[in-house]
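Exam review. A common question shows you a sequence with its structure tokens and asks you to describe the fold in words. Practice with the pair below. Do the first one on your own.
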Amino acid sequence: MKDIIARARQFATEAHQRIDQRRKYTNQPYQEHLKSVAALVAEVADDPEMIAAAWLHDTVEDTPATFGDLERTFGPAIRDLVAQLTDVSKPSDGNRTVRKAIDRRHAGQASARAKTVKLADLVDNCRDICRHDASFARVYLAEAAALLDVLDAGDARLYRRAQTAVAECARRIGLPAPPQSTLGGDEWRPRRELSLSQRRALRVFTTAFSAREIAQPLRSFDIERPVHELVALIEQYDLEVAGLRRDGVCVGYLRPGAREARGIEELLRTFDPAQVLQGDASLSEVIRVLTRYDFCFVTAMGDVAGAITRGDMQQPVVRMWLFGIITLMELELLERIWALWPDGSWTQLLSEGRLNKAHALLEERRRRGQHVDLADCLQLSDKAQILMEDEQQRAAFGLLTKGAAKRVIKDLESLRNNLAHAQDIVTHDWPQIARLAQRIEENLGLEGERR
């Protein structure tokens, strides 16, 4: 069992390195945080599965790895621990206060083992945030105090360390006492009301494209069939996933690797409520599910009738949708440039070569009778580069450094090029697809708040 820790360390390190994830304030490789959390857990528990889960606790939330990947690599016990440690709220659920309340309820239902890992995560995050961001620390400490209310079943020693970390951080930033559990506002991240054109586009995105358009029919079989017969059917039809019916209702699915099952209990995987969507669910919701699970299931008339995999996201309707999102993002970038530099002084932030290309395009478009200005002639990378020079604009997109912004711009261009040339958009572009989907959900949340 000890080698499972080493395998978890390698898996997590490679997963976070693959997307070049770094600690927000120090720019250290993200595995430094994972190492600290695992070390804290190891101090209070000689439990290889818990220590492995500490290394893996952010992989599903932050990287392309799914719960299925974890189960295939480490087994169901570690998979379940990581699931208990993974936030379940969505940007479309509401503002930060609402989302944190949802995640806190989820943490409150976790096992004592998972709560111990969560306490270690809280301790390390508290240290980091308090040391580097006193302004956000006021928000975070209120959330941490509320979270402690539901983590008391975790290890008592780590619980006391977490209490001490919260109290010391509060004193360091000048608060008289640890914050109460009531949570404050959502001012840590710049928010911005959407323009009329963007709101209209968002409404189109939420109604014109849905899960039912891309779901594949879920072939299902009666659960009463003998196991060897079910396995034979899987092989006969070469199914990636199949449903199991009881009394005519689909109650679960045959998971990958079912061919080696010895009994129905090994064959059946019950549906996780978080991976089941209604047919009218948005594609951004589908992407969010597929970021965590191997399969997204879709209901029709109250029963699971369809399934979606990442491979299904190569379909033309999804490509159209993604191209539309990128177009919408370009519009947002352009409007921000106009708002920040109404006098056109943004030209000072662009290289001479890129500026000359914009001028050449402007001349050609005006020759054709188009009424445009120079900013209209910027490429996507140009617009993003200009905005990312501004610290507040980087923060508005969740990016801390110019280096991180450049990597995101490069990934976005890769996705757009692969979309335009009908290339694979799943193998290498999934993190960017997930980022775009989250951006849409955040904007939808803002639209809901505005109403």
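Now try the second one, then compare your answer with the model answer below.
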Amino acid sequence: MRNSFKVGKWEIKRNIKNKSFIISLFLTPLIFIIFATVPNLLSDNEDQTSATKVYMNDELGVWEMVEPFIEDDPMINWEVVPTTDDWDTMEDRIATQANSAYIELNEETIDESVVTYIAGEGLDPAFDGQIRILEQPLKQIQLQQADLTEEQLQLASMPIHFESIETDEGATGEIEEAEAGLGADPFEKGIPAIFAGLILFSIVITGMMIFQSASQEKKDKVAEIILSSVTPGELMQGKILGYFVLGLIQVGVWLTFALPLAIWLLEDVPVLEYLFVPETAILVFIAVLGYLLFASIFVGLGATLEDAASGSNFQGMVMMLPFLPVIFIGPIVSDPTGTIAQVTSYIPFTSPTVLILRLAILDKWPWLEILISIAILLVSIWIFMKLAGKIFKVGILIYGKNATPQEIWKWLRA
């Protein structure tokens, strides 16, 4: 094991001084920051310059009822100007002003249940939906004028709520409350999942570098020199360990940028409080298991190629395994307790990503499914480490061609 640590240390030193690694280390978070902040800055500027000017002829007192709600609604940007001018006067005025409207609220509005307004040229397309905020207070005035009792008025004004329940498809046939949903605060479960997903993404990407490292050493014919000092198993383990640490370094640098940005953008969300919870440790553990699984596959695969640029269709398909869960994102998000979500939680190649995604959505974690999935992952890692060791031992010393699937199968059976 001492030699494995030496190999890992050598891989870390070799890559940490690599210009391309350093550039990607800092360039990636900068790109994310640009994509995260520029739209917000542009929308802020747009909000400051594109307020819809609304002339309000309100004979019913509706505006006083809705003004507090509009001020707190970031989606509605109105500059309301009270007016008593008649329809013809306002029609001429609106015709000369862009992004403006005139709303008339009077007894006729109540009698006919129709809100009449003039839309100026270039009016924000969202205005047709925003004006519906007047519907509830107008309905309340109509009910008051209908001379209903206070209880009838309260009942008629009460909104209808919809709750989803699911039937258990098992033998019991009991009806249970649906567990799926983001709950009261989606960030509470979303932040730990995003953190674990970032770790999984980062160390899987660096795990792919193992593939390049093994094939490059084979191309440069330095593998024989290295193997004169360590065994193939120690070399493989050292590479997996070294690139795992590189992935953690990458995550550390990215978090240095991401955490302050998240705290700034989500100023009303206790980001650190949601992050440092026991659930985060479980999700990170799942992410690490995913890395070990894919790293063992990549290091064995890299030893089968003549060089990194000459992979066959077979090797290319194997390299796409970490991205396989993308196919199932739609069904999993729409039904995180469904059959597809459960089955993909047990498949080793999809399990890490699917588990992190499901646990970010579910209110109650299915602990039995989690334990079974982790057990399958651990067994799969042990099996693939053994198989990768056999492939690596033979493939790293074969030059001049890429190994065929038939040859790889022969090495596995040896």
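Model answer, second protein: Residues 45-49, 160-184 have pLDDT under 50 and may be disordered. The two ends are 25 Å apart (CA to CA). Full marks require stating both points clearly.
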